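Good morning C.,

I know you're traveling, so I'll keep this short. The sequence:
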Amino acid sequence: MFTKRSALNRVSGYHWYLASPSWYERRKWILKRANFLCEKCRKRPATVVHHRTYKRVFNEEPADLIALCGSCHAEIHWRQPANRRIKRRGRARPCQGFARNLRMVRRACR
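The C-alpha cells, ready to paste straight into the viewer:
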C-alpha cells in the first residue's frame, strides 16, 4: 500500500519558488537596485540574487537579499554553506562509503 506524501517538501518548495513569477519580480528588483553590479566585489556584473538569511524565505525583505556575481556567490557558499550541518575542512573529500566501494571495485579489477 502506498503512503501519500506531501507534494512539496521544503527543498522542492524552495525550487518551485525560485521559478515563480513572484521571485522573478523580486530578483529583478534586487538586481536593478544594485545597478546589475556585484554588491561584494563591485567589479563584475551581478547574475545571482543571494539570500543572506532563510528566515523569511517566500516573504523576504529587501535587506535579506544581495546581488552577487557567480564567483562571489560561490565563495560565500564555500565559506558558509546554506546547510549549517556541513563542515568545510580543506579540500572536498568523497564520503567513506564511496571510497570503500571504490577500493572494492579496484581490487576486483586486478
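Safe travels,
E.
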